[in-house]
Amino acid sequence: MPDFNTIDDLDVNGKTVLVRADLNVPVKDGQVTDTTRIDRLAPTLTELASKGARVAILSHFGRPKGGPDTKNSLRQVLPALSKAVGMEVAFAEDCVGPAAKAAVDALAPGGMVLLENTRFHAEEEKNDPAFARAMAELGDLYVNDAFSAAHRAHASTEGVAHHLPAAAGRLMQAELEALGKALEKPERPVCAVVGGAKISTKLDLLGNLVKKVDMLVLGGGMANTFLYAKGTDVGASLCEKDMADQARAIMETAAAANCEVLLPLDFMVAREFKAGAACRDVAADAIGADEMALDVGPKTVEFLTLKIQGAKTVVWNGPLGAFEIAPFDAGTNAVAGVVARRTKDGGLLSVAGGGDTVAALGQAGVEDAFTYVSAAGGAFLEWLEGKTLPGVAALAKK
Length: 398
Known about the structure:
Helix 1 crosses helix 2, helix 9 (220-229) crosses helix 10 and helix 11 runs parallel beside helix 12 (330-344). Helix content is 35%, strand content 17%. The protein is of the alpha/beta class. The protein has a six-stranded parallel β-sheet with strand order 5-6-4-1-7-8, sandwiched between helices. The chain folds into two domains: 7-173, Rossmann fold; 186-384, 3-Layer(aba) Sandwich (Rossmann fold). It is elongated, with a radius of gyration of 23 Å. The protein has 15 helices and 17 strands. The protein has helices at residues 36-50, 78-85, 97-105, 122-125, 129-136, 155-159, 170-184, 203-209, 220-229, 244-256, 298-309, 330-344, 356-363, 377-384, 390-393, and strands at residues 16-20, 27-28, 31-32, 54-58, 90-92, 112-115, 141-144, 166-168, 190-194, 215-218, 260-262, 266-270, 279-283, 292-296, 313-317, 349-353, 372-374.
């Protein structure tokens, strides 16, 4: 991970700061239904404003096709954003050109303006140099606080950084510091917990992790594929049988790197996947032909608890079972609870992220107890895969 500038390295007083945010939040009937991303962004915006900066906020929203449309206008986000920062945020009808310039010029020091959706211009996703330059002309400094968009080399996430002094916002900084501590220079032993349905979507991630961690815990549907690759009959369970060779190759790479692969010892199985379905606990090699493994069983929870007790760092991506339906959330809840308690006791650094992970930890009631939970989906996964994130690379100290 590159050495990067933060807000502490910038003198923002009296300057116009372009802040790349991620305001791609869920909206229904013109109302924001989940303000998590806005709430996490607010400290960066209010800090810059309190230091006398004029703050111009850039973001994408939705997937507009060929120009502006009201459904994808950031104007819908304005009330929630104003509430989060505790002041009236102005709005500009464009993110470049005369309308944007007029709105930015009208700001007093300490004021904020939200610029319209960057994706209303096709040049944004093409990272068009002229477009990035036109955007950069609106400000004196650039702050990127959108880690969740950092895996995209777009004009507002990467291109602008080449034209202005650039730094990470507080959310981006927290994310990069947490991720750096988890995998770049971790306290060992490091345990990675990887769940989810398929290994086909996580091959790069697993291939990178087994070279970096001491223990790899596998759960969810992907654990069935690994068991099948070892010759275990997994009955009617979700299993990618055509991925058995890749699963064996990952286990060989892990063995060569002294990474212990931990597979479930037992499962909660059922004949159908529905709430309240009759289920039973069976050993991993005793699943009936018409049964599905839907969660890890109590012996696995006990086994993983012992392993996590000995870890200093945990990186978590994906649930251990079909957590959406009780009682198949029990394994994820129990193991997440162990990680949460050890983190609270100060013996563990725990970092989690990616799609279902945030939902599963929220459902387990432990999201706030982990050291850091990333809301950054794709960017978090690409970081776990060991890939360079263009939006982060652009912030490297020159």
